[in-house]
Amino acid sequence: MAEEKRLGLIEHLDELRSRLIVALVAILVTTALAYIFSDTLIFILRLPAGDIKLRAFSPMDGFLIRFRVAVYGGVFLAAPVWIFEVLRFLSPGLLPRERKFIFPGVVAMLGLFALGNVFGYLMLQNMFSVLFTMFGSELEYFPSADQYISFVTYFLIATGLAFELPIILLLAIKIGFVSIDQVKRQRRVAYFALFVFAELITPVADPIIAPTVVMIPMLVLFELALFIARFIAPKPTTATLPAETNATS
Question: How far is 22 from 15, CA to CA, in rounded Å?
Answer without folding.
Answer: 11
